[in-house]
Design brief:
heterodimer; A: 113 residues; mainly beta; 6-stranded mixed sheet; 4-stranded antiparallel sheet; 50% strand; globular; B: 115 residues; 11 strands; 52% strand
Amino acid sequence: GNSVTQMEGPVTLSEEAFLTINCTYTATGYPSLFWYVQYPGEGLQLLLKATKADDKGSNKGFEATYRKETTSFHLEKGSVQVSDSAVYFCALVEIQGAQKLVFGQGTRLTINP
Amino acid sequence: KAGVTQTPRYLIKTRGQQVTLSCSPISGHRSVSWYQQTPGQGLQFLFEYFSETQRNKGNFPGRFSGRQFSNSRSEMNVSTLELGDSALYLCASNQGGTILFDTQYFGPGTRLTVL
C-alpha cells in the first residue's frame, strides 16, 4: 500500500542553521504531497503542499519540491528560528481507495538559541 | 473564519467505559475526517463523513463509530474502552471535494486517557 517515510528524529539545530527533513513516499500514480507541522499542545497545521511533479510548495520560509523521479518531498529552510521547534509530518493523499491522508511518523525538530 | 473546534480538549475514562468526542468543522465545510494519533502507531485515519454519510473508513474495530449531523458537526464514539485507545483524536474538515486538491484543516484534538 501507499506509505511515507521520514528521516528519524529528533533533530536538533542551532538558530540560523539550514534545515533539511527528508521524506520519501510509495504510492500508486501521482499523489498530492503535504507537510504539516504540529506545535506543542496543538493540532496539525498545513505548512505547504504540492499537487504534481516538479511543483514547489513554500510557506514561512519553508520549501519542498515534488520529485517524481526520486519519489521525494524533502522539507528545507535556509535559516531556522527557535519558533520553528515542532513536529513535522510529511503526508500524501491516496488517489485510489479511501480519500485520506497517509502520514509519515513525524520528525521532532528542536532549535536552540 | 473560525477554525475547526473539538470538545472536550481532555478526557479521562476507565477501561470498559464509552466516550463521545465532538467536532465542529469550518463554516461551509461539509466533510469531516477523524484521525487517531499515538506515539507507537503515529497518525491513522479512522473515518470520513460527508453529507451525514460515512464515505470512507480506516482499519479500526467496530468499537469506533461516528456520525455527522445536518449542520456538518460530527461526533465519534468509542465503546468498551481499552488502554490502547489512549490517544490524541484529531478532527479535520474540508469543503468536500477530493482531498487531492481540497486541503484538510485540523482541529486542536481531544486528548483521551484510558485508565
